[in-house]
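Sequence only, no structure available. Ideas?
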Amino acid sequence: MEKYFFLIYKEIKGTIDPTEAITLNQWLDASKDNLQIKEDIISSYHLMEHREDTFPIDVEADLKTLQNKLETLEDISKKASTQKTSVVKINRSKSTSNKSLKTWISIAASLLLLVAAIFSFQYISGSAEAEWLSTVTDSNQKETISLNDGSEVWLNKESELKYMASFDEVERKVILNGEAFFNIKRDTKKPFIVETDAAIITVLGTSFNINTRDNNETRVSVKTGSVLITDKNKSQQIILKAGQAAVLNQQTGTLQESTRDISNDYLWHTDKMGFKKASLREVFTVLEGYFNISIINQNKNLDDCIFSMTYQKPDLESILANLKKIYKVSIVEKSPSNYHITDGICK
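Reply:
I predicted one. Tokens follow.
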């Protein structure tokens, strides 16, 4: 319930976003009582807004005081309504008293809800910047980050993840620049949101990889569960399931499902390299990225040769030896990170 008080307060302050507005409107449409609560909170807020502060206000202490008073008023109301009497005659003063009591309970309740919402807003927004953390990796470093909701993030080299030490009551949001693999603990009440420069990725609980290392595209690959991808302009979106991937091209602005094999999208994280009827062109690209080398294929007839193999903790020399044996290629190491391929034939 407090979540909706918080959203009402954000609506009053003009800071509610479109997704939150939809959530609030669905709650308001569900019950007339919910609409009345909103009206009471708005009325109470405007009354408090025009007061003049002649003393310091402790929101947390006021909240506790209002809670205690409300509990006392409700207890009195219950006793009055259950008290037995042998007099049938209508006692107008008693009726008026009970009505007045209920009115005060209603007012106290409205103020309590308002103070609770303000307290939540001040606590969450006031502590957000102070608890906003950042992890950055260099060219030879990977990091594992444990979030406070039980989720885990593996951050690849030359990447940055921004996250809060404690998520708020509405959503779990992080910001990624680079590449990371996420294993998110499921929470149907609070979606997990990853923002990149070009896209917004929303999940409830799943495992997936996001790669923004290529300045021209954002690639999302799903290992388990499902993921919703939306471009920053919110004009396109795709829902991906396990085994699927999508690419957002930042130059053309197009978002579409990828047909490329995703087996090696998790390679940097799992150290398991797999090729299933992959072209040698794709194989060379994967080897270059994983081993941080350059491969120059001087025999373009090899590009479309098909290769299938799996390596656990892959070793470059072993892989190159396999290529020599299968395709009869010549591989010359021009430097420790530069290889030239000549000759060879598809089998």
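The domain at 132-257 is CATH 2.60.120.1440 (Jelly Rolls).
Hope that gets you unstuck.
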